[in-house]
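Open question from group meeting: does this chain pack into something compact, or does most of it stay loose? Before anyone orders reagents, we agreed to write out a predicted structure and look at it together. Recording both the input and the output here so the notebook holds the full record.
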Amino acid sequence: MNDHAVKPAPAPATGAAHHGASAPAQETDGFQLVIDALKLNGIDTIYGLPGIPITDLARRMQKNGMRVISFRHEQNAGYAASIAGFLTQKPGICLTVSAPGFLNGLTALAHATTNCFPMILISGSSEREVVDLQQGDYEEMDQLAIAKPVAKAAFRVLHAEDIGVGVARAIRAAVSGRPGGVYLDLPAKLFPQAMDAAAGAASLIKVVDAAPKQIPAHDAVKRAVDLLRSAKKPLIILGKGAAYAQADADIRALVERTGIPYLPMSMAKGLLPDTHEQCASAARSFVLPEADVVMLVGARLNWLLSQGKGKTWGGATAKSWGRQRFVQVDISPQEADSNVRIEAPLVGDIGSCVAAMLKEIGPDFAKPPSDWTGAIAERKAKNVAKMAETLAKNPSPMSFQSALGVVRDIVKANPDAMLVNEGANALDFTRSIVDMMKPRRRIDVGTWGIMGIGMGYCVAAAVVTGQQVIAVEGDSAFGFSGMETETICRYGLPVCIVILNNNGVYRGDEKNAGGGADPSPLVFVKDARYEKMMEAFGGVGVHVKTPDELRRAMEEAIRSRRPTLINAVIDEGGGTESGRITRLNPTAKKK
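Structure tokens returned:
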């Protein structure tokens, strides 16, 4: 330790010792420097769970005007921080205790890294000298080493005078280039370290241009535009990276000026309204194999797009390569050629790339042939009409479709509302039925298809936007984070949770294959009254069995803006195993 800069807090001086002496220099400590470093960089909200050794840090954050949202489980706090990062382009902060608390937040950190959400997991930790000798400290763990494999970057701060550097490096790492999760390790001994207040203030860093623009090369822009010009059946795929970029006006201009049909991935829905005439979502299975040139904007050719090959893309077999030619707009050059050959990689931040393409395209870009756009329109019309017939049915008990027809109407009437969505069938049906009209209003399970994001996302969406939040949850998915209904009630957040309750995972009519007394591992307690949980914490709980009852309950929740949980009973046999990704579960039973 640098003794001239950092020292233990001094003992109170006696009056006699300082009689007639000048006032002692003001001091600060590690607690205050962490707070000041975050506030200096515009971070004013913390998601976490207090405990040893960060309890006093959370208290002092709140005392210093920061908003501290305290959860019941660190994983949910981490999910909240991650989606706050996606919505704001600033790193969401998750604060946890050491060891078990850190590990609980680690899943959310990995989720943020995988999905390119800027997030910083800040955890207290045990003293280095005890950890390194494995002497058995309280919650002893080498947290930095554990975090590194799942984080974009990881740092540890040992001395108070380095807090400013540590926070600055974490912020820059989280948001620059391809965003991701960053771990910042703060050992317990750091917090009470004292130093001269003026020197402490001088040690802090306000990060300048944390996510600098990355301008694409002109020849790369021209190559991409020329490839689009050559296409007879072009297609644009918009990913959540395009939504994160907040280049909404230019992206819309690019789509409309070129006339190219587009397919939004789940969290890109609403970048242009899902009802836009160029939206090809209702013809997805037609456009992917038929397109000849595909431009990916902030989207990756991962499993969600069948790795860009196989039958989804018109290949003869699941392993065969398609015949498509690809343009890929991405901030990471390493993303190109990760699955198929990318003939026109366009590397740079999405806003700069799209702006450069608009300039290169000019006003004379020839729109796609009418036989391509007409074929898409015809397929869309058929599928939309078929869906309308399904939504018009009113079975008893409700189906996924009849319940989600109500949600669709409510979201359409409230386009500013945030939609949180997780589950298997609940996720897939909602994605295809509920239209989004505005960007970054739909947030869901992301790249891993991870369950448990629901309540954390609800909290962050309400805190960040101040808008009404509507959560559509499978009953299984809700179980991962349901206790956070208490958090929602404690902070009085305008969250309306709709649980599509079919009594189990995928389906509630599964039988014990061995004929024993135990229920199937996929079945829950029949007719569970989830709404009672919300009532227990002072919110509104509603039990509904018909679309009309669901509509009235949702309308009242939005009118009152009170925390509400609607337990919507649906047909327990209406789901399919693994939703629409049964192929990933090769022994899945066909129903």
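Observations to bring back to the group:
The two ends are 66 Å apart (CA to CA).
Residues 1-19 have pLDDT under 50 and may be disordered.
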